[in-house]
What does this fold into?
Amino acid sequence: MEPRLKKTAPQPDVTKAVNLLYKSAFSAGVPKTVLELVHLRASQINGCAPCADSGARSMRQAGETDDRLFAVPVWRETPYFTEPERAALALSEYATRLADRPDPVPDAIWDEAAKHFTDEQLGAIVLWIATSNFFNRINVTTRQQAPQVWG
It folds into this structure.
């Protein structure tokens, strides 16, 4: 499958806006691992190869284990994730699949996340999930590919 656009880099104003979103999400006191996990999970759900690839590689470079990386799609069935991470992963799944149910993000999902994170941190997590979905939609729509890595 060929990419529909050869270059998908946004205009300079968009890049500035995305950098502000990144700064806001990553400065709210949420552990970086949690933000990386919600990004990876949203990207897997949306079938975004470049984001899933870069997210997993970034996490591995930061010292994440293969056990946890390989288990993200089945996080409920593994012992590898903390309760706060599980709450964030569930929130990521529900916030990514908004059209799949009449109550897109049920109170039980939100309340579980609220047990582990402050309002400011929850806002940052939601912002990062939305930002991940933003990039997923651009990449999937334009058929961007994960980079080929050999060796």
About this structure: The mean pLDDT is 92. Helices lie at 12-26, 32-46, 49-61, 66-71, 83-96, 107-116, 119-141. The radius of gyration is 15 Å.
